[in-house]
Amino acid sequence: MTRPTFPVLITRAQPGADETARRVEQIGHTAILSPVLIMEERSDAVLPSAETLSGLVFTSANAVRAYAGLRHDRFLPAWGVGPATATAARAAGFSDVHESAGNALDLADFIARKTAPTHKPLLHIANAAAKGDLKQRLAVHGFETKFAPLYDMRPAASLSDAAYEVLSQDAPCVLLIHSAKGAQRFAELCQDRRLNHLITIAISESAAAPLNRLDLKTIEIAPSPNEDGLFHAMEAALATLSA
Q1: CATH label of the domain that carries residue 128
Q2: Could you list the residue range(s) of the whole structural domain that residue 85 is in?
Q3: What is the pLDDT of residue 129?
Q4: Does 141 map to a domain?
Q5: Within the chain, what is the greatest distance between any pair of CA atoms?
Q6: What is the pTM assigned to this prediction?
């Protein structure tokens, strides 16, 4: 029996949205691209000399790309929050890559288990709106951490035409949510729309929280806060729907 296919609305920022879309298409569903956040690199970014640092801490693949676009050094250890970030670091030319699993606090604990503080600080690279949770947790473990906000995430003015078209239909549709900020912008753009046909898959409980006021069909949480977990939850939800 042929497995039914579903449209999958991808709200993740580029270039990650294209990566997610390829994976959606590979498992036989239809990817609908509509990033709700737009990455903008900061022209005023100032980075300390690599020689003064003990390592680089990346909490997103976009952070890796932003750093790689500014600097050519690749000799420092690179600490990634999850598999997508670690993969981006390897693709950028880093050879000493350490891959955690979970959120920023999990990454801080992972770093503390794997290495000891030195007289040189770590450098946390992220978007300008990143919270200081990672720095605070690393401080508990004895690490000094500097912060480099290399990019901003600007809210998109609207969804794509393809997204609005699929939202206007009654058929089931999957909504993938990669971040709380993305969920918040999606909620703002769709607050007056009927959304009770959306099967929503969020990367974490915190990412799903801004959607609570929307009338969605379901909200499922990924078993692990990364792309693999997101797809696992999506396929489980669609299997139940297709049964």
Answers
A1: 3.40.50.10090
A2: 39-153
A3: 86
A4: yes
A5: 62
A6: 0.85
Please tell me the distance from the alpha carbon of residue 83 to that of residue 19, in angstroms, as a whole number.
Answer: 13
The answer to whether position 125 is within a domain reads: yes
Measured distance CA(90)–CA(220) in Å, rounded: 31
Q: Retrieve residue 44's tokens.
A: 């005023």
Residues sharing a CB contact under 8 Å with residue 157, sequence separation 6 or more, in sequence order? none
In sequence order, which residues have a C-beta less than 8 Å from that of residue 109 and are 6 or more positions away? 137, 141
The pLDDT value recorded for residue 242 is 63
> Across-strand partners of 56?
78, 123
Task: Give CA–CA dist 121/219, Å, rounded.
Answer: 40
Q: Is residue 48 part of a domain?
A: yes
Q: How many domains does the chain have?
A: 1
200-219: b or e for each residue (b if 16 or more CB lie within 10 Å)? bbbbbeebbebbeebebbeb
Residue 116 lies inside a defined structural domain of this protein: yes
Q: Which string of DSSP letters, residue by residue, matches the chain?
A: -PPP--EEEE-PPTTHHHHHHHHHHHTTPEEEE--SEEEEE-TT-----GGG-SEEEESSHHHHHHHHHH-----S-EEESSHHHHHHHHHTT-SSEEE--SSHHHHHHHHHHH----SSPEEEEEETT--SHHHHHHHHTT--EEEEEEEEEEEPSS--HHHHHHHTSSS-EEEEE--HHHHHHHHHHTTTS--TTEEEEESSHHHHGGGTTS--SEEEE-SSSSHHHHHHHHHHHHHHHH-
pLDDT in tens, 46-99: 899 999 999 999 999 999 999 999 999 999 999 999 888 999 999 999 999 999
CA dist., res. 28 & res. 51, Å (int) = 47
